[in-house]
Amino acid sequence: MYATERQDAIADALLASGRVSVADLATSLDVTTETVRRDLDALEAAGLLRRVHGGAVPAARASVAELSVAEREGQHGAAKTAIARATMRLLPPTFTGSVSLDAGTTCAAVAAEIAAWEPAAPGQTMTVITNSVPIAAVLQHSPHLELHLLGGRVRGLTSAAVGTATVEQIAALRPDIAIVGTNGLSAGFGLSTPDEYEAAVKGAYVVAARRAVVVVDQAKHGVEALMRFATFAEVDTIVTDAAPPADLAEALSEADVEVVVA
Questions:
Q1: pLDDT-derived band at 68, boundaries 50, 70, 90
Q2: Could you tell me the maximum CA-CA distance found in the chain, to the nearest angstrom?
Q3: Cα–Cα distance between 207 and 186 in angstroms, integer?
Q4: Are strands 190-193 and 237-240 parallel, antiparallel or unpaired?
Q5: Is residue 207 within 8 Å of residue 234, measured between CB atoms?
Q6: What is the pTM of this model?
Q7: Rg over CA atoms, the chain
Q8: Is 100 helix (H, G, I), strand (E, B) or coil?
Q9: How far apart are CA 80 and CA 251, in angstroms?
Q10: Does a structural domain hold residue 63?
């Protein structure tokens, strides 16, 4: 196989999975790890990827890179829907407690499912707390929900309320379940996001809730964004669309985190 063919194959694998490892590429391409590293160097020089420990990620996935909600809405749609439906197993028709719901497109998929939620008994309601303006808009018309929209400075990129006021409001609450999104899920770094204000809100959700549930698609497995907002020891459940790779699965198991694969 010529170098250009290998590099095309590496680019395709990266597009499909969001991350590639040197060892796996060497096996699948039947070449040495040194050859793979040279190919990764060439692709990085061309601006097509970024080298990380043990492999590579897309060039756009820097620790501070962040797409807007509008840009992310069409990405991994089927996976996010599956994750949302799996998350709803935690909120059966008999549920009558409170849920805090983070901003972001995966949480928005959960919100779409919650909007259709109906209680087992007439008159029962679910309390939903969110800092996301678009999520609040989705939920506001349901007669079965008691909706609380947190205040704060609305960050344009995510349409989410953030800042000291938002964090203080969350700290004064004790919801039964917090459903939180993440930009990164890493065995070595935990849960992370690029922005410090978003990180503060996500961390506050995790600390405040009786049960912290993280919703994350497989493209974020192994990713490390700039700001860590929680360790695995601080969360209870991960809902994702594919089984985590071995190192991540081991770290989650050691922290006694339940992993639900949609």
A1: very low
A2: 67
A3: 19
A4: unpaired
A5: yes
A6: 0.76
A7: 20
A8: strand
A9: 23
A10: no
pLDDT in tens, 182-203: 999 999 999 999 999 999 999 9
**120-170, pLDDT tens digit by residue?**
999 999 999 999 999 999 999 999 999 999 999 999 888 999 999 999 999
Look-up of token digits 């501070």: 64
Residue among 55, 53, 64 nearest 28 (CA):
55
Structural domain including 74 reads 69-261
What residue type is assigned to position 137 of the chain? A
Query: What b/e sequence results for 118-136 when a residue is b if at least 16 CB atoms lie within 10 Å of its CB, and e otherwise?
Result: ebeeeeeebbbbbbbbbbb
Structure tokens at 255: 């922290």
Q: How far is CA 160 from CA 12, 134, 149, 169, 191, in A?
A: 34, 8, 10, 14, 19
Report the half-sphere exposure of 156 (CA within 13 A, side-chain side).
Answer: 0
Same domain (yes/no): 112, 166: yes
Residue 48 lies inside a defined structural domain of this protein: yes
Residue 112's domain is classified under what CATH number?
3.40.50.1360
Bridge-based pairing state of the strands 160-162 and 55-58? unpaired
Do 93 and 156 fall into the same domain? Answer: yes
